[in-house]
Amino acid sequence: MLAIEWLNNARAVMSKIEESQLENIKKAAELMADSIQAGRWVHTFGCGHATIP
User: Fold this and answer.
1) CA 20: distance to chain centroid?
2) Residue 43 and residue 53 in contact, taking contact as beta carbons nearer than 8 Å
3) What is the pTM of this model?
4) 9, 25, 33, 39: which sits with the fewest CB atoms below 10 Å from its CB?
5) What is the pLDDT of residues 19-37, one digit of tens each?
């Protein structure tokens, strides 16, 4: 079934991101939190849900 194949592929991509980028994601989160705590802005760019932060 195509839906199951798509979901499996999406999970594989997310796993690869977690394995290879988790430390970078943590660093970015710390930088963003520090900026917010200091009363400064955090500018994000993206489409759809990418702009939520």
Assistant:
1) 12
2) no
3) 0.69
4) 39
5) 999 999 999 999 999 999 9
Integer Cα distance of 44 and 37 in angstroms: 17
Question: How many residues are present in the chain?
Answer: 53
CA distance 21 to 37: 24
What percent of the chain has pLDDT above 70? Answer: 92
**Residue 53 to residue 36: CA distance in whole angstroms:** 11
Contacts of 23-32 with CB under 8 Å at 24 or more apart are none
